[in-house]
Amino acid sequence: MQERGLSARTVRFTHAVLRAALHQAVKWKSIPQNPALSVDLPKQAKGEIQVLNPQQARDFLKEAAQDRNYVLFAVALTTGMRPSEYLALKWPDVSFSKGTVSIARTLEPIKGGGWRFADTKRARSRRLVNLQESVLRLLGEYRDTQVENATRRMATPRLRI
Question: What is the rounded distance in angstroms from the CA atom of residue 147 to the CA atom of residue 143?
Fold first, then answer.
């Protein structure tokens, strides 16, 4: 496979599928042992992560300011949190007085569709993350807007048919 130019990742994935099939053949007693277990796999090259430089980050946030998810983008870009972490944040997780956000849960997919909140997989994943002053200010403004909208919806009589 490598001689044909396929990547180490493709070779490893193919090996995993074949190994599982051969394991089942051993369970069914169709073959005495799994030959895939003795294969030396190619090492997978670890690519270097590309990060935005400060100017690129500022440019991104300037453009993102027009998007309804701007606050989310700002939190994601400035904290280094995983998507499953920042998407699981709730207002009690944000300490405006300390300038921190507490990672207490994650958002995970449910088999068959949908999403749910779950505890972090590891205890060390629960942590406090410092927020930049500008992001803290954005979060405060966003929370105030949410409160105003909720109050307005409650105060506005609903048309019932």
Answer: 6
Residue 38 belongs to domain spanning: 1-47
What CATH number does the domain containing 109 carry? 1.10.443.10
Assess whether 35 and 72 both reside in one domain.
no
Over residues 72-93, the pLDDT tens digits come to: 999 999 998 999 999 999 999 9
Cα–Cα distance list, 99 to 96, 102, 138 (Å):
5, 10, 12
pLDDT tens-digit series, residues 103-113: 999 999 999 99
pTM over 0.85: no
Q: Rounded to 5 degrees, what are φ and ψ at 70?
A: -55, -45
Answer for the pair 34, 23: CB distance below 8 angstroms, yes or no. yes
E-strand stretches of the chain: 94-95, 100-103, 105-109, 115-119, 127-130
**Both tokens assigned to 122:** 């590891």
124, part of any domain = yes
- Cβ–Cβ under 8 Å, residues 77 and 55: no
